[in-house]
TrEMBL record:
This is Transmembrane channel-like protein. The chain crosses the membrane at residues 204-225, 275-294, 369-390, 402-420, 440-463, 535-560, 581-606, 650-672. Residues 473-579 form the TMC domain. InterPro entries: TMC (IPR038900), TMC_dom (IPR012496). It is found in: Membrane. It comes from Cricetulus griseus (Chinese hamster). Belongs to the TMC family. PANTHER family: TRANSMEMBRANE CHANNEL-LIKE PROTEIN 5 (PTHR23302:SF5), TRANSMEMBRANE CHANNEL-RELATED (PTHR23302).
Amino acid sequence: MLSDDQVNEIIIEVENVPSGVQRHLASSQIFLRKSTANPTFSMVSSSMTDITDCQIFSNGNDGRHNRLLRFSSLNESISQIHHSPECLGMDETCTFHETVQGQKLISSLIPMTSRDRIKAIRNQPRTMQEKRELRKIVDKEKSKQLLEANCCAQCLSSLSLAYRRSKGNLSELLNYISFWQKTFKVIGGKFGTSVLSYFSFLRWLLKFNIFSFVMNFSFIIIPQFTVAEKNTLQFTGLEFFTGAGYFRDTVMYYGFYTNSTIQHGTSGPFYNMQLAYIFTIGACLVVCFFSLLFSMAKYFRNNFINPHIYSRGIAKLVFCWDFTVTHEKAVKLKQKNLSTEIRENLSEIRQENNRLTLNQQLTQFSAHVAAWLVSTGVAAACCLAVYYLAEYNSEFLKTHRNPGAVLLLPFVVSCINLVVPRFYSMFRLVERYEVPRQEVYILLIRNILLKISIVGILCYYWLNIVALSGEECWETLIGQDIYRLLLMDFVFSLADSLLGEFLRRFIGTKFITSLSLQEFDIARNVLELIYAQTLTWLGIFFCPLLPFIQMITLFIMFYVKNISLMMNFQPPSKAWRASQMITFFIFLLFFPSFTGVLCSLAITIWRLKPSADCGPFRGLPSFIESIYSWIDTLSRRSGYLWVVWIYQNLIGSVHFFFILTLIVLIITYLYWQITEGRKIMIRLLHEQIINEGKDKMFLIEKLTKLQDMEKRANPSALILERREVEKQSPLHLEELSAAHDLRLRRSMHEENPEV
């Protein structure tokens, strides 16, 4: 802003209008003079409503501060409110109540909803202080109307306001306590959104396991502690690897929990452990189910349906900057993030324009078919090897009591999960995908087929061999197997990150420099997370503390992967956006991982017979029998018949789940159709923008040719125009003298080449 001693007067003149109009305006120039009593400007002039583009010239006392500013067309409401006759000559700013237009504006804002009102005030071309005053006035008028309304309207308004405030406060709290925000910015700035999607998915899974652990600890583990007996087994330390021994008689496994009703005192409240166990596990799975559905719908809407994703956020990247960022490191990190996003967008645009010839397409298709045949054969061979090893291992453990022998099956399975995905990654040398996202998708599908097939073979082994073998507490044995698989997978992942990736970097930088640094394998690392989470959900019924173990492993793996990423990896050679990758990750976690877990647990609860000597369901013909007996008890009480009706008509009804599945499929189909329709709309609008640009260029060329023809026909017009400009604005003449001299010389040279 100009200082007080620099501002004397501001002259508004019209630029590039016919000479006749200029003479008319020369006699009626508009002056804005600074008021001596108030730092605001008051307008003293005649009305000129047809002027849209004006020039403001500020001339300082020393004559050195000449500035050229431009006004765009002022908003009609601003001119009506602030420049109305009621406000002219007043020293103070005219309030909204003092003008008819202001009262109309307030009355139009009052009936709006809160969101629409805020948006309308935000779009007003006013200063921030005026917007705040306008909002206060509208809120005050709204409160007066609410006081005059009935009690129900006041209650509803108060509840809605309290809900919005609590929702905003909760959102701010969740953002504040969110894990690793600064680390995420560093990863995104250096490696892009593709690598960042892995860490976002890891944090998302960590929240799932925190919720599951809190539920199990609150409703299962704490009540069991109140009636638990002292553990008489000796702790040797080997239990951390085998999961057996001392841990067998702890709250870690199913067999330790009591089947009696917990009651302290003869008249105190009682706690049914059977119902608590099955309802807590069921509630965790139901919440996970709906959370997965909601997350898929949310990410699908944000990444596939919203139209702004098809513009790739170019406007946000190029024209927006957060001016609240002032720290030097934060500014550099923000710049790095923006440059990475721009590279990703440009890379995608370039990849979309690439087209392969027919021979290249046939060669690539043959390579894809061969890679799929080899990967499917390897997965089938691994599944057969795991199944026969599991059968052999069960026979071997009956004759050998070596504590370390139980680690054979988890060791082999972890070796397969470590080696085979790397073998799949080598197919990229043959397939050579042009789009990196397609390569990640294919690797994810191949790896998920391998790992879920192995988990399916193990489930078949547990539910058809271990559960029917007559072992003393087969639920605890299954829980121990799942614990060992999860622990061994964590150990292999840790060793691979700390040793394997470090050795790969050392070899690539010291001995074989052609290898250089490797790129982060998103597909393999994401599948490790999905595999571990599948085991956690599968074992939560047999080992209630498994979410706590998974929570610790995820927390450790984040820091290990982050350190290894910064030391041993380079940014992706092909930059690409991964905004839609999280949606695909969650879909793979939902199907086939979570749905397979639900099927396995449903078979366990409805078909298998519990152990007779351990666990909360001992002595029952099936796990679900506890629910049946509870429903029979409630049916004999008139006050709980509504619970019986809900169970019989909703939870226990096949038709309800069929209708629910049908509704989900219909909604999914509608979302898909909306996505396709918006893609077509965006493509048509893009073509329309291109055509309009071509039309504008054509008109500009025509106008340029007409101007050149007019100048050749009448070269003296330039001299007259120069004189008119000199009369109107000497300062404008100084600014544009070079351009006028150049045009005059060029026109004279065209008319008289000899000169």
